[in-house]
TrEMBL record:
Protein name: 3-hydroxyacyl-[acyl-carrier-protein] dehydratase FabZ
Keywords: Cytoplasm, Lipid A biosynthesis, Lipid biosynthesis, Lipid metabolism, Lyase
BP-aspect Gene Ontology terms: fatty acid biosynthetic process; lipid A biosynthetic process
Chief location: cytoplasm
Keyword Disulfide bond: no
Entry's localization field: Cytoplasm
Enzyme class at the top of the EC tree: lyase
Provenance organism: Thioploca ingrica
Matching PANTHER family: 3-HYDROXYACYL-[ACYL-CARRIER-PROTEIN] DEHYDRATASE
Active-site residue numbers: H50
Pfam families xref list: FabA (PF07977)
Amino acid sequence: MNSMEIHQILQHLPQRYPFLLIDRVLDYTLGESLVAIKNVTINEPFFQGHFPHRPVMPGVLIIEAMAQGTGILAFKTGAAQPDNNSLYYLVGVDNARFKHPVEPGDQLIIEVKLIRTARGVWKYTATSKVDDKLVASADLMCMKREIPS
């Protein structure tokens, strides 16, 4: 079983607080799949306004957490190594579905599977679950791009 703790994750993702949304990688298979977790706490800054009377994790942040999972898988696989001249961007989201709200105290289990790579575009299928209940799914496309100078 291949796992990663937060210090290893920080070596593979450029995101930092408050936008780092992966707390631990439970398992990964290079070039194939990854399973990660996001512990959702009431201390998240977005809960102050979304929604104060009934906090719910925004769907776009669930998509972002899944995209960060794809980034770790790509970086570990070796085809999208981070450097100072480029970034690994989310370039497409298809078939996004949200089935249940994610609330403080939930643990989001994020699963990403590489479907294919073509012309530098990596295509994944991703799901997020809480307590084995599907809360979100999407097809994600990502690509390493040079940073304009």
